[in-house]
Design goal:
Elements: H1 10-23, E1 32-40, E2 43-47, E3 57-72, E4 82-93, E5 99-111, E6 114-127, E7 135-147, E8 155-157, E9 171-173, E10 175-185, E11 188-190, E12 193-207, E13 216-226, E14 235-242, E15 256-261
Antiparallel strand pairs: 1-3, 2-3, 3-4, 4-5, 5-6, 6-7, 7-10, 8-9, 10-12, 11-12, 12-13, 13-14, 14-15
Length: 274
């Protein structure tokens, strides 16, 4: 911040340098051209209560593939020459009327001295069909691991980014995982409104290395409200109770209440190159 003291004292200079090394990545200017190939099966099914809470959602079924090859060059104004690689593969199922997804991706840059900024991600999503005309079980998870990182930004987990029992951005690092288990009620019609509830459990963490990842989790209950005249997004309020203390967060009571939009919290974290 502008008012951060520019103290010439060596200890203050070391503090600033340590902060910059932890939170700032290497500054750069890049310019590249790329070609990308996408393939998928054009089969779709309309679902309800996956994310929109009673509004129709069209989901693609079957496999899909994305391949990308790019070249950054000083001829184009880039500060460095390198190749850009990206591969994404996933498959969606509609078993027994539910929706299931399994996917993985890999991204990297190829410099003259080898690969850098590698990011490997894996994800899974399983939503059962509506059971007993009353509820649906949803399980989701995503994990990401970085190698030879130079330019990628930190990943934050907590609050809106996964663990509802912990503050926003409570955990951060370059490797992470997030998982959710939810038992969701079907929406109840009140005039044009749709209301419902759920119980849930979360798990997740983020750390600089995969070996430092630990288990943190919470459980709780929440309410959902859809006002279709105002927004297609669901309003949500969740009350979560952490399993373990962390910093000023204590386990159990009183927990943490958070409100936001969408049926579930984010787990599809995007990790840009800063």
């Amino acid at each position: 911040l502008p008012d951060f003291p520019h103290d010439p004292d060596p200890a203050a200079a070391a503090l600033r340098a340590g902060f910059a090394q932890t939170y700032f990545r290497v500054a750069e200017r890049t310019s590249d051209l790329y070609v990308q190939y996408d393939a998928f099966t054009p089969r779709y099914r309309t679902y309800r209560d996956l994310d929109s809470y009673d509004l129709g959602e069209d989901q693609q079924l079957g496999p899909s593939l994305t391949l990308k090859l790019g070249r950054a060059s000083t001829w184009l104004g880039s500060e460095a020459d390198f190749f850009v690689y990206k591969a994404v593969a996933q498959i969606n199922f509609g078993i027994l009327g539910g929706f299931q997804n399994i996917g993985a991706s890999w991204e990297s840059r190829d410099y003259s001295d080898g690969l850098h900024d590698q990011l490997l991600k894996a994800q899974v999503y399983v939503a059962t069909p509506v059971l007993a005309r009353s509820f649906r079980v949803v399980v989701s998870g995503v994990a990401g691991f970085m190698a030879d990182n130079v330019h990628r930004a930190l990943v934050y987990v907590g609050g809106l980014e996964g663990l509802r029992g912990y503050p926003v951005n409570a955990f951060f690092g370059y490797n992470w995982y997030i998982a959710h288990l939810e038992l969701r009620s079907m929406p109840l019609a009140l005039a044009s409104l749709r209301v419902g509830g759920l119980v849930f459990a979360d798990a997740g963490n983020a750390a600089n290395t995969a070996q430092e990842l630990m288990f943190f989790g919470d459980a709780g209950a929440g309410l959902r409200l859809l006002i279709p005249q105002l927004n297609a997004e669901v309003l949500r309020c969740d009350w979560a109770f952490p399993f373990r203390p962390y910093g000023q967060v204590q386990a159990g009571w009183p927990g943490r209440i958070s409100c936001g939009f969408r049926q579930g919290v984010r787990s599809d974290i995007h990790v840009p190159i800063s």
